[in-house]
Sequence to fold (241 residues):
Amino acid sequence: MSDFSDSNWADSQFAQEYLDHAETYVPFRREMMETVRSFCSAFLSSTDKPRILDLGCGDGIMTSIVLSTCPEAVPTLVDGSQDMLDRAAERFTGRTEFSYIRATFQELAEEQVLKDTYDFAISSLAIHHLPRPDKESLYRYLYSHLGPGGHFLNLDVVLAPDDELESWYMELWRAWVDRQRREGVTDRDFSDITRRYQDNPDNVPDTLDFQLDALRRVGFRQVDCYYKYGVFVIFGGRKPA
Fold:
């Protein structure tokens, strides 16, 4: 995705469609959220007022997960869409210590937007829109804005290492959305979800191995995949203390 303004995510109706149906689109989304909550409890709860960076924040759902474990956290929420930032600000009405930055991932590094350092950076289903060189550049930029011992966590989709596995992972995804309809979770037919994902030029996922290696190259330690179901993953690392 070379220009956020040209992408589907700049369309507020497209973004709303995703928000309305994310529980159906994303397999085991609640379990992924619980993994994030557990991670924060294990690694952030002892930090006094941890500084949080939420990248591609959308309506602020990931920040809300962090706050459920670390209510004194001080978040900075970043998104390329002003509409999404407005939704996030509405979610956190009354929290005056929060910061909101309208910027794309490319703009963050190119214009040196961030001025602070953070204890924890998180992103959800956003970084896969970046071409491979931009992903590694973003990881390097995030590393430079984490304080000693700071963590980075990415919930995202990845590319399978070969076509056979990719085909199976797509079938796992289709089976999930089909089950949501059979069980009455939704009355919408999302059976074409994998085709739309694969045909969307905004989506340029890379393999998990490439991204774990990229984190190691820029200096992260404790690099690992913390959760995986088909193409859906949670991975990250820690800046040395």
